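Researcher: Please predict.
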Amino acid sequence: MNSNTIFLIIATLIVAAGAYWYFFTGTGNQPPLTAMSATSNQAQMQFQSLVSELQPISFDTAIFENPRFVALVDLTTPIQPEASGRPDPFAP
């Protein structure tokens, strides 16, 4: 056998053994560390406090009754449909 073939077989066996160990021994399915959950709880508490600060926000809707706002005109231009090109532009 060629030395490259032997090296390829050994490398394949090592990769297969590593994949087996990772997926079937349970080391890849460990729960996150407790330090991460503590920081997530702190972040969640900070988010909830910020949301509670936003609850009393209200907007003044009197602008919609202003005569200048009511006098605004829609200036959009309608787009006319155009004929499409050939189904296959590269066809002869």
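Model: The mean pLDDT is 83.
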